[in-house]
Every structure is written in structure tokens, then in C-alpha cells.
Design goal:
heterodimer; A: 310 residues; alpha/beta; 3-stranded parallel beta sheet; 11 helices; 40% helix; B: 234 residues; mainly alpha
Chain lengths: 310, 234
């Protein structure tokens, strides 16, 4: 009985799917001229909203999707950011977004020819970032994304647009002066993060590690006195310190370099170059420093010199 | 597919799964006891006890486990200052304290949550015991505790072995939530590995999924067999 009802529904779905992919390939055809083969454009149409000539230029990536430059030409972009990091990527109670990562993402989008209204921000948690790029959930990611060799295997990085340093957040009046002083103290970080591991491996082997799901929980525990310090990148900690003025402070001993990059589809060289150019322009015309000042300046974070791109 | 992380000395895969097993066993024992007590309260002649058990089961059963576990750490331990372990001397004491404190908080949260499901399973088991048996027991002068302890509950338990097996399987998988408060079990290790080895996402995922299947599949088969063996034929 149920199958009889299912029949037309399946047929309908198939029909809709065919219609959609047909639309996709026509779009691709019009946008592309004849650079791609017919088969190529159908494949691109089926997997992404608009296929393109640069499927070839991107080295024929497995997804068969278009490069960033062509996606931007369509007028809309899906950008991955963090939703829960004050000063960097934060969703405000009214649904808008603010933070340095958001400003960089918006600036780059504008350089690529996409207005703010054409941007859709999507939450990308740390563990989901590579997968989101690979399966096309987002077009690029600006989410405190440190450039590492393991990640380069999966995605392309533009930038760095910022260099952060790992630091400790402690209570005002704490006697902790640096990572070496963490011996026998409780250090909090998020589950799976490498920063707590670094303190344990390099500085204080007998530090006690408390892991929570989010930094907010760590900071909450720190404010309540349950842990002695929270560790991650200084620019992230500065945002939290600003939320607890007079209660929490940064130790101010940066002990690593984290190069924040913008993650794109693996092999999208044209897109990477375009984003690099946009970041360079943002630094040169002063918007970079202005955005940092506006977002993390209030927490007393000293604005560093811009990184070298490439 | 690259499985090189399996031999990486940084990751103690077996240790993590051993922690998962320990969490499961302690929580299983605890929730079996608390669940039985709750069930006894629900069928007891005292209205206060019945009311409390009903409210407790229906409240806790409907709170997401993540919320229960995080509340254990953030509210019970950090907010109210409850200590389930003592902090030893010296630098090594801090880690030992944190490890056992978090483990016990997680077991407590899992017990509070899982016992409601045990209680519901057991209550349905009680319903399979013909009411005439309880009436006959009362007629020969047995007290409530005796009726429940020697007549009703033994038969109820034998009737719900299979559902309790499902609860145990769910519990095994639910222990992954303990990673939210930093208990070093399998899913916490998975998070760490995913962060460090972003390029081996699928392989890591498969290893951990398999690990859980290896833990839970025999549980299900075993409980199915026991259920067949001890079930009361009516």
C-alpha cells in the first residue's frame, strides 16, 4: 500500500532532479562558452549551482565544482565563520554577525564583486571545516583557521591575514606568569584542541587538563574559579577578557605563531590568488587595521603589524 | 585509505575505549540500582513516593543528556562546589583529581539519566506479572517489600532482559557525551585525532564507528540469548 503512494513521489523527485540539473547545465553553458566538454558541464551542473570553465583551471578537482571567482560572479557567496567567538566571528542576538573574521570575509567578498546582501554566513565548527569546503557547503572559510600542513592536504589556503599567538587567560590577581608556571595547575581548553597539548608537551608536563566542548564553558569555569587558566590564541582570549572586565586578563606571553588563513577548495589557484589580492588591498588601504581596532581593540589587544601574504 | 594513526604512540586508542567500557559498566550498575529503586517507588502504596518517582522519571527522561552531563560539571561541581574526589598533594595530584572528578561526575550524570529508562522498562515488566499473584501473596500475609522482592520483581526482570539490553547499548553510545566535560573516552580521542589529522577524516571515523559496533553488537546478541533463556513462559 505504502509503495503505491511512494511511486509518484519518487517519480516527482526524479523529475525535479532532472529539471534542476538541466537548469544547472544551461547556466553553465551560458556562463562558460565552450571551454568545458558537454559531459563536464553536466557533471558540474549536477554538483554545484553553476558549472564553469575553470573546472579545468582548478586542476579538475574531484568535486567538479566551479572556482571561487566564477561563483562570486553569480553574485552570491556562502562563507563559513564561527558563531561563538566574540571579537572574531559572533552571531549577535538580533541575528547579525560581527567580528574581525566577518569583516575580512565581507571585504574579500566585496573585492570578488559580491555585495553584503549576497553573502550567506554559515557556522563552521573547527572539526567541520575541511568537510564543509570539500562538499561545497561553503565557498570559503574565515574562521580562525590556522594554516597547517595536514590541512593543506585537504584545502587551499589564502593569506595568512592574521598571525595570532597562543596565550593564557587567567583571573585578575593570579600568580601565573607564563606556560611554565602551569605545573600542578588546572588548564582548560576545548576538546580536541592542540593548544592545551602544546602546553603539556613543551612547558609543564604535570599540568592538569580540563577539556570542555566550547571556550565559553572554559571561561565560565575560569570566572568561577574551577580552573586556573584557559589557553588558545590570544586574539580569541582577548574577546573573552573584554566580556569580563576587571575579572580576567591575558598573561601576554605569546608562545606560538598561528597563521590564520582563508580556506578554499583544494586546487582553486585562481580563487586563492584573488583572495590574496583582496587581503593585500585590505591591509594596504587601512581597513585591516581599522577592522582589528574596532573588533578587538576595546579588550586592550595591541594591534600587531600585518602579516606578509603568500 | 591511510590508517597510520593507529600505530601513533600519541593516541592511546585502547585506553580510550577502556575508559568508555568503564564508564558504561559503572553507569550500568548504578542505573540498575537507582532504576529498581525508582520502579519500587512508582508501585509503592505511599502516594508521596509514587509522585516523586513519576515526576523524576518524566522530568529527567526528557532532558537532553548533554545538558545533564554539562550541568554535573558546570552547576554541581563548579557552581555548587561539590567535590567527588579529593585533590592530592603536589603537581601530579591536580591531574589525578581532575581525572577522577570528571569521571565520577560523568558516571553520576549517566546514572541519573539512564535509571529513568531502566525504571520504565522494569515497570512494563511488572505489568506482565498477573495481578492475581500479588493478591495471592498479600492474602498469605506478605508485606509490600516481600511481594515486590520475592514475587513480582524477579519475574519482571526476567521479562525485560531484552529491553534492558537496548538500554545498555544506548548507554554505551551515550558515554560519548562525557567528552563534553573532558572525560578521556573514545569520542574525546576522536576529536583530538580529527583536529590533528584533518586529512584522515574518513579513516578515523570508520575506526571509531567500528570500535563501538564491536562493543555493542555482542551486548545485543548476549542479551537476546539470555532473554530467551530466562523469559517466563505464560
Amino acid at each position: 500500500m505504502k509503495f503505491r503512494k511512494l511511486g509518484p513521489a519518487v517519480a516527482g523527485l526524479v523529475a525535479a532532479g532532472l529539471a534542476l540539473s538541466a537548469c544547472g547545465s544551461t547556466d553553465a553553458g551560458s556562463a562558460v562558452s565552450s571551454a568545458t566538454s558537454a559531459a563536464g558541464s553536466v557533471a558540474a551542473g549536477a554538483t554545484s549551482s553553476a558549472g564553469s570553465a575553470v573546472a579545468e583551471a582548478t586542476g579538475g578537482t574531484a568535486t567538479g565544482g566551479a572556482g571561487l571567482v566564477e561563483k562570486a560572479a553569480a553574485g552570491t557567496l556562502k562563507i563559513g565563520i564561527k558563531f561563538d567567538q566574540p571579537g572574531l566571528g559572533l552571531q549577535n542576538p538580533d541575528g547579525s554577525f560581527s567580528g574581525f573574521d566577518v569583516d575580512v570575509a565581507t571585504y574579500v567578498a566585496k573585492e570578488l564583486g559580491v555585495e553584503e546582501s549576497g553573502i550567506e554566513f554559515i557556522q563552521t565548527k573547527s572539526s567541520e571545516r575541511e568537510a564543509s569546503i570539500e562538499n561545497g557547503t561553503v565557498d570559503y572559510i574565515v574562521a580562525t583557521y590556522s594554516i597547517t600542513d595536514a590541512r593543506k592536504e585537504k584545502v587551499n589556503f589564502a593569506g595568512p591575514y592574521f598571525v595570532a599567538h597562543q596565550d593564557l587567560l587567567v583571573a585578575e590577581g593570579s600568580d601565573i606568569t607564563g606556560p611554565e608556571a602551569m605545573s600542578g595547575k588546572i588548564l582548560c581548553s576545548v576538546a580536541g584542541s592542540t593548544s592545551a597539548q602544546k602546553v603539556k608537551d613543551t612547558y609543564a608536563a604535570d599540568v592538569a587538563l580540563q577539556e570542555y566542548g566550547t571556550y565559553t564553558e572554559c571561561v565560565e569555569a575560569l570566572a568561577g574559579g574551577a580552573v586556573d587558566a584557559v589557553t588558545t590564541d590570544d586574539v580569541i582570549l582577548a574577546g573573552y577578557a573584554a566580556q569580563y572586565p576587571g575579572q580576567l586578563k591575558l598573561v601576554g606571553k605569546g608562545f606560538s605563531d598561528e597563521n590564520y588563513g582563508i580556506g578554499l577548495t583544494k586546487g582553486d589557484t585562481a580563487g586563492t590568488d584573488a583572495v590574496n589580492a583582496a587581503i593585500k588591498k585590505m591591509i594596504d588601504d587601512g581597513s585591516w587595521a581599522a577592522a582589528l581596532e574596532a573588533n578587538v581593540g576595546p579588550s586592550g589587544y595591541v594591534i600587531p603589524t600585518p602579516p606578509t601574504i603568500g | 585509505m591511510n590508517f597510520s594513526f593507529l600505530s601513533d604512540p600519541r593516541y592511546n586508542l585502547l585506553g580510550a575505549f577502556w575508559n568508555t567500557i568503564q564508564l558504561t559498566l559503572w553507569a550500568a550498575v548504578g542505573s540498575l540500582i537507582l532504576g529498581t529503586v525508582l520502579t519500587a517507588m512508582r508501585v509503592s502504596p505511599v502516594p508521596m513516593m509514587r509522585g516523586f518517582a513519576t515526576v523524576y522519571v518524566n522530568m529527567v527522561r526528557n532532558i537532553p543528556l548533554t545538558v545533564v552531563i554539562i550541568a554535573m560539571s558546570q552547576v554541581l561541581a563548579n557552581g555548587l562546589g561539590v567535590r567527588l574526589a579529593s585533590r592530592g598533594e603536589g603537581a601530579a595530584g591536580a591531574q589525578a583529581f581532575l581525572t577522577s572528578q570528571n569521571f565520577r561526575l560523568a558516571v553520576l550524570g549517566l546514572v541519573l539519566y539512564t535509571s529513568t529508562f531502566v525504571s520504565e522498562a522494569l515497570r512494563s515488566g511488572i505489568n506482565t506479572v498477573p495481578v492475581g499473584q500479588a493478591e495471592a501473596a498479600r492474602a498469605i500475609g506478605l508485606k509490600f517489600t516481600q511481594i515486590l522482592g520475592i514475587i513480582v520483581l524477579p519475574q519482571a526482570f526476567r521479562a525485560v532482559v531484552a529491553p534492558l539490553g537496548s538500554v545498555l547499548i544506548a548507554l554505551t553510545k551515550n558515554t560519548t557525551v562525557a567528552s563534553a566535560i573532558g572525560v578521556a573516552e573514545a569520542s574525546l580521542l576522536m576529536n583530538t585525532m580529527l583536529e590533528n589529522e584533518a586529512d584522515k577524516f574518513t579513516a578515523i571515523f570508520i575506526v571509531f564507528a567500528l570500535g563501538f559496533v564491536i562493543l555493542t553488537l555482542p551486548t545485543g546478541l548476549l542479551f537476546g540469548r539470555i532473554a530467551k533463556k530466562v523469559g517466563v513462559k505464560r
